[in-house]
Specification:
Elements: E1 9-11, E2 17-19, E3 22-28, E4 30-31, E5 46-47, H1 49-61, E6 65-66, H2 69-77, E7 85-92, H3 97-108, E8 113-117, H4 141-149, E9 152-156, H5 169-187, E10 193-195, H6 205-212, E11 217-219, E12 226-227, E13 239-240, H7 247-252
Parallel strand pairs: 3-7, 3-13, 4-5, 6-7, 7-8, 8-9, 10-11
Antiparallel strand pairs: 1-2, 3-12
Helix pairs in contact: 1-3, 5-6
Length: about 260
């Protein structure tokens, strides 16, 4: 007997009261130090290895169970299959440091991950952030395969990393469909989720476009831990993670 859809609590088997599951979805970009000067500089999006390890430790110590991407997607349809408190660790853009720096820490904590990749830049550099963030390499297809083998699900961050609000309907459809098809062709694994570049989903119609393209979920950027079931699987909030994020406050809802 499954729990029914609810608000605040659910009725579980034989009428028992169940607390609504909560999922803390953390949104990171870069783990480690920026490139050395003059090529690089500090920015909010860099999280040192020490701080990243502290974040993972805080989740574990506070009883938040790490989810993989597939289990999270199952939980969207069947929230009662999720633990009361769980965490999904996500990363945007696909920086090469994901393989060199981030993956060893995820393995150390036995934490799966999700990496959202803009397909036009695979094997290239982050020119979409030119002048705003330091110039850095983006994962190659080989890097992405290694990450997948390390329990990091590779999912879509569209193709060109442009804000969906700046695109017309045909362009949005291309960004959604082409990125998904290319990732699935090159990696041989299903792509069921997208994180909108810059957290910008564009107009309401992008919801239907994402569903039509075959996505089961779409993620925003910034927000709080989500209560399951989510109101809209194509507008899922994530906690924006920077070096000075007070994760414990975010988990308590104090921020």
């Amino acid at each position: 007997m499954r729990a029914t859809s609810c608000r605040g609590y659910c009725l579980g088997p034989w009428g028992s009261v169940m607390t609504e599951p909560r999922v803390a979805i953390l949104g990171f970009h870069k783990i480690g130090a920026p490139p050395p000067p003059p090529a690089g500089w500090e920015s909010w999006f860099y999280v040192s290895e020490e701080i990243f390890a502290r974040f993972l430790g805080e989740l574990s110590d506070e009883g938040w169970e790490f989810l993989d991407h597939a289990r999270f997607l199952r939980g969207l349809e069947h929230p009662d299959t999720l633990p009361p408190r769980s965490a999904l660790i996500t990363f945007d853009d696909g920086y090469r440091s994901m393989r060199d720096t981030t993956l060893p820490w995820l393995r150390r904590f036995d934490a799966p991950g999700v990496l959202f990749v803009p397909t036009d830049y695979v094997g290239g550099r982050n020119s979409f952030d030119r002048g705003v963030e330091p110039d850095e390499p983006i994962c190659s297809w080989d890097d992405l395969r290694v990450l997948h083998e390390g329990d990091v699900a590779i999912q879509s961050h569209a193709t060109s990393h442009r804000s969906f609000s700046t695109l017309d309907e045909a362009e949005r459809a291309h960004e959604l469909a082409h990125s998904k098809a290319l990732l699935e062709k090159r990696l041989g694994e299903p792509v069921d989720s997208i994180a909108f570049p810059y957290g910008d989903p564009g107009p309401e119609s992008s919801h239907d476009q994402a569903a039509a393209a075959g996505y089961s979920a779409a993620f925003l950027y910034r927000g709080s831990p989500v209560r399951m079931p989510v109101a809209d699987p194509y507008r899922i909030e994530r906690i924006a993670m920077g070096a000075n994020t007070d994760l414990l406050a975010e988990l308590r809802g104090d921020s």
